[in-house]
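Entry for the shared binder. Reason: the reviewer on the internal report wants the predicted structure included alongside the sequence.
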Amino acid sequence: MTPWENKLWYQFLRSYPVRWNRQKVLGNYIVDFYCSKAKLIIELDGGHHFSDKSEKADALRTKELEATGLRLFRIPNSDIDKNFNGVCEFIDSLVKNSLPPTHLW
């Protein structure tokens, strides 16, 4: 895992009340973080994801994964560096909005 993935995993997702997996195989892909209960994928993107070639590949990957009923969200590594608490709050809101209140904790 990258330093940004390590930070998000060890400082937030690992102990999150709804279970997350890291480096999960889904179809032909390995996603950074996956929450089966909420049907969410979180991908952390470094600088190489912002080239034309990578953006096209990422768009195809997103389309194929979302076609299975999942929702995929991309978070730049720079957001982990500059606004870690905001990233955690964003992920928390995604989970809470994806699950009925009785399934949260």
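Summary line for the report: The chain has a mean pLDDT of 90.
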